[in-house]
Specification:
alpha+beta, five-stranded mixed beta barrel
Amino acid sequence: MADSKGKKAEKAKARTAAGSPAGEQAGAKHKLHRYRSHDCGALRSNDIGHVARLSGWVHRVRDHGGVLFIDLRDHYGITQVVADPDSAAFKMAEKVRSEWVIRIDGKVRARPEGTTNAELPTGEIELYATEIEVLSEAKELPVPVFGEPEYPEDLRLTYRFLDLRRETLHAIIMKRLAITRSIRARMHDAGFNEFSTPILTASSPEGARDFLVPSRVHPGNFYALPQAPQQYKQLLMVSGFDRYFQIAPCFRDEDPRADRLPGEFYQLDLEMSFVEQEDIFSTMEPILTDLFVEFAEGKPVTRHWPRIPYDVAIAKYGSDKPDLRNPIEMQDVTEHFRGSGFKVFAGMIDKDPRVRVWAIPAPTGGSRAFCDRMNAWAQKEGQPGLGYIFWREEEGSAGAGPIAKNIGADRAGAIRAQMGLEVGDACFFAAGDPAKFAKFAGLARDEIGRELKLIDEDCFRLAWIVDFPFYEWNEDDKKVDFSHNPFSMPKGGREALESAEKEGRDAILALKANQYDVVCNGYEIASGSVRNHLPDTMVKAFEITGLTQKDVEDRFGGLYRAFQYGAPPHGGMAAGIERMVMLLTGCKTVRDVALFPMNQQAADLLMNAPAPATPKQLRELSIRVVETERK
């Protein structure tokens, strides 16, 4: 028995020395692994004098007076390899080119004094090559791997396997994996269990088009890829599982944008039973805060998130996903223009009670040049212009600009006092129905913050946005629609729905939902709600949008049936993985943090998808393709 244990120990030791990428050393007394004794990031000064075998990609080759230096790269790092004319490997070293895959045997030695590289973990040593074997040659590269040159995105996506070799992108993908590992650990620690929900499912109204999958077994019928695991996670709560989470793939056939991948993206999906909104907040706020702190690389992270009602967010920031790094807050200054000499605004106010005037302060923006620049920006945004007042020493509180001249010194001074502005500052104005101009005002706030460098770029400002509208008006179809998640519980429950229905459209649109978002630095990174778990309330909520009880039973039969048999109060949320990784890595788009993303036209250039199906495939699926007319 002792002999058997001894042999196993010897074999394990040999594997570590000869076969493991992280093996400590490989001396002459051990047979070297076929490809490597160490990875390219492993060798250190304590390996000097030992024989090592490395395999990897040729990162670059440098010729210094007849001495060749090869930077050999693999997943783990870079090692400098040296071959001089006295080396048996010199002739082969002269042949190798960038991105060839090679094996190199050699002796570890210290770099000459003054040539160490403190930026590399292997920077104190080099490998003197004694043998080089070419494992795979590379054609001339369509996109470079060394360095970070700007290349067209479509070309990079076509050759994504080369793009992923770049040091920066490679590190981003590994950081994404570290973030998802941390999420899983934190969710398990908080008592959540990880479930996998189906990918082939039924169509569901989550706010975007479904990807449909034809059924061969059921001709003429279609599955849908899940826009989110919404109904399944609610069914898990009805099934008696208390805390669910999943790093879930979601599929939405929607137009691409910078903060969401076309086609497929991932989210941290979660649900909890027997909870109110406060329970979800108190559970998830520390998890996400600590996650950001872990990967923020020392940048400040909001510890106690403010809770901002939706209506307040729109009024102050012009957005339900405000960038709180920007200190600018808008205010309503309608009364300062009512009956004023600025007839454009005064006339609008008298004519329509919905008209408001919002002021957008611009600290340090008090120059005509800046105000003219903002006015030109507004015109590029399709607006007639952007009115302003700016304050200089010579005018005092009366201010300068066309608006100041028309409203007079007293009104201009009152605006300045309300907004807390000083000499050297400016203020811009948007007027009309806030429902129509709020978005533009929010964009102006963002632009002013950027132009005047008011935004703190080195922090993460998180907040809850709460009390979202339950319904919205669909102008195209002239009907009431759900504003966000149709499975949310309205504040006030069924009684609030019935009361609002009696009072009319304005009362319906005033209803609030037990719904909330998490925002960070101008991005919505999570959304959730307390769910509507009562079947009668669920039906009533859908009836207001024009659906009948039969429609609800047909479209959401599984969930509706489940609610007939004892559903616990429950709620949850979903946080976008790509958006969080994008923020934590400082990337500009979510495509930069995905392994094999589609381009901005929702095409996979690497795999050539989407592509036509063969006639045989279409026959098997009982499908005929109808050509659409080209305009």
